[in-house]
TrEMBL record:
<protein>
    <submittedName>
        <fullName>ATP-dependent DNA helicase yku80</fullName>
    </submittedName>
</protein>
<dbReference type="GO" id="GO:0004386">
    <property type="term" value="F:helicase activity"/>
</dbReference>
<dbReference type="GO" id="GO:0042162">
    <property type="term" value="F:telomeric DNA binding"/>
</dbReference>
<feature type="region of interest" description="Disordered">
    <location>
        <begin position="400"/>
        <end position="448"/>
    </location>
</feature>
<keyword id="KW-0067">ATP-binding</keyword>
<keyword id="KW-0378">Hydrolase</keyword>
<dbReference type="GO" id="GO:0006303">
    <property type="term" value="P:double-strand break repair via nonhomologous end joining"/>
</dbReference>
<dbReference type="GO" id="GO:0003690">
    <property type="term" value="F:double-stranded DNA binding"/>
</dbReference>
<keyword id="KW-0347">Helicase</keyword>
<keyword id="KW-0547">Nucleotide-binding</keyword>
<dbReference type="GO" id="GO:0043564">
    <property type="term" value="C:Ku70:Ku80 complex"/>
</dbReference>
<dbReference type="InterPro" id="IPR016194">
    <property type="entry name" value="SPOC-like_C_dom_sf"/>
</dbReference>
<dbReference type="InterPro" id="IPR036465">
    <property type="entry name" value="vWFA_dom_sf"/>
</dbReference>
<feature type="compositionally biased region" description="Polar residues">
    <location>
        <begin position="428"/>
        <end position="438"/>
    </location>
</feature>
<dbReference type="GO" id="GO:0000723">
    <property type="term" value="P:telomere maintenance"/>
</dbReference>
Length: 448
């Protein structure tokens, strides 16, 4: 009712009534007594509120079942006379029950299948907070369960109606005259106009509202002593268009219509290396620019898995010459941990670059030639000694990872070799030069 949309239709069916009036009984089917349809579904207004106020509580025994009321409601919604059977409508069914009452559950599966086929959303509201919703209500799908308080909060919350852009058919034209090329296309609006809900003028008794217009002078519009002009003045008014600070009179003579043809035409092509999109920010008055990638900018590269090797037969091998073992993984974890030396921490060891810059600024500000400059301490080489064992162990484990290859019978040399890798004694690791092939290329020299 608050939305004011003409496409919303609502109906009301009472369960446990003393009189029986529903579409199922009218078709000659027995067993649906105590269910009363308050009228065909229509646009919600004050009449449906009046019908709710006229209902009184009945203390007599109820012979009907809530599941029967659900069947009557579904049949009423899908009928052509009292509901809407087209799939374009979104059907929502609210049923208010008490979770503690026993209900029949023989036709639950058939009811669920019909609800899914008709795209009906069921929302079950529990009026008894002492019991939770159980079978057979939980077997109904699709359904949502809520308490009475949750239903009241949901009804009081503002409902946002999202507008969807409907496609409009037109023609995309190229050229003019007899050489014109027209292609049928569809246009959709990127943004939809959002308007606040219009106020509904209603009276307690449902009487029509009388609307009157009163005219005042512009100079007296905001004065409390302003007097309204007589109604005969309206015939002397002249309509005008506002052009800046001026008013241009609008004559009643209709303007000549211009012959146009509906269509879409590309006016200009822009050749640019990049394409960007501006998105407005909701929190601040700004735009966020994002560059749109082209198809040539996206390169899809597949990487082989690191923990398994697929074979040609489709099998996976977890143990292979190219997969590191658990011992090698553990050694590499220790090697990575040793890269951060615990001896020279940032809070205890000064950074030479930062301290030299600080001393330079200090000398320039003091402008004293004989100022004593403190020399920053240079980190020693003792921190590399602790990592020497880990580095040697990693080299030993990863040294022979190259698969063995057999030489041909005509080649000279030994029976087997290890590719381009050269066997190096681990004790000579401190003297390894950068040009020596192998896993370690760190040169142990005084320059480090």
């Amino acid at each position: 009712m608050l939305r004011g949309l003409g496409t919303i239709r609502a109906g009301l069916i009472v369960h446990g009534a003393q009189t029986t009036s529903n579409i199922v009984v009218e078709e000659g089917i027995d067993g649906y007594d105590g269910i009363m349809d308050m009228g065909p579904s229509a646009r919600p207004d004050s009449d449906i509120l009046t019908k709710l106020d006229e209902l009184e509580t009945s203390f007599e025994a109820c012979t009907s079942d809530p599941i029967d009321t659900l069947v009557v409601a579904i049949t009423t919604m899908l009928s052509k006379d009292r509901g809407e059977s087209t799939p374009a409508w979104h059907h929502i069914l609210y049923i208010f029950v008490r979770a503690g009452l026993a209900v029949e559950s023989d036709d639950i599966d058939a009811i669920s299948a019909r609800m899914r086929h008709a795209h009906i959303d069921l929302r079950v509201v529990n009026l008894d907070d002492d019991y939770k919703m159980g079978a057979p209500w939980t077997r109904l799908a699709p359904s949502t369960f809520m308490s009475l308080g949750e239903a009241l909060r949901d009804a009081a919350s503002p409902a946002v109606q999202l507008s969807k852009s409907m496609p409009s058919r037109t023609w995309l034209t190229f050229g003019e005259g007899p050489d014109q090329l027209a292609i049928p296309v569809c246009i959709l609006k990127a943004t939809a106009l959002q308007r606040p809900p219009a106020p509904i003028r209603a009276t307690p008794n449902g009487d029509p509202v009388e609307i009157r217009h009163r005219y005042y002078r512009h100079s007296e519009a905001f004065s409390e002593e302003a007097q309204a002009l007589p109604q005969e003045v309206e015939s002397t008014f002249q309509r005008a268009y506002r052009l800046g600070a001026s008013l241009v009179p609008a004559h009643d003579v209709p303007s000549p219509t211009i012959e146009t043809s509906m269509g879409l035409e590309i006016m200009h092509f822009v050749h640019a290396a990049t394409l960007c999109i501006l998105a407005p920010d909701a929190e601040t008055d700004s735009f966020t620019m994002a560059q749109v990638p082209f198809s040539s900018d996206i390169q899809r590269t597949t990487f082989p898995p690191l923990d398994r090797v697929p074979t040609r037969d489709g099998m996976e091998q977890r143990v292979h010459a190219t997969i590191p073992t658990e011992e090698q993984q553990h050694a590499m974890d220790v090697f990575v941990d040793m890269l951060q030396s615990p001896i020279h921490l940032p809070d205890t060891q000064p950074n030479p670059a930062i301290h030299e810059l600080k001393h330079f600024v200090k000398v320039r500000i003091a402008m004293v030639p004989d100022i004593e400059i403190e020399q920053s301490e240079t980190p020693g080489r003792n921190g590399f000694v602790a990592a020497r064992y880990t580095r040697t162990k990693c080299y030993t484990l990863y040294r022979d990872r190259k698969p063995k290859r057999r030489r041909s019978d005509n080649s000279d040399g030994g029976d087997e070799y290890y590719g381009r890798y050269t066997k190096i004694d681990p004790s000579r690791m401190n003297n390894v030069r950068a040009s020596t092939p192998g896993p370690s290329r760190i040169e142990s020299s005084p320059e480090i």
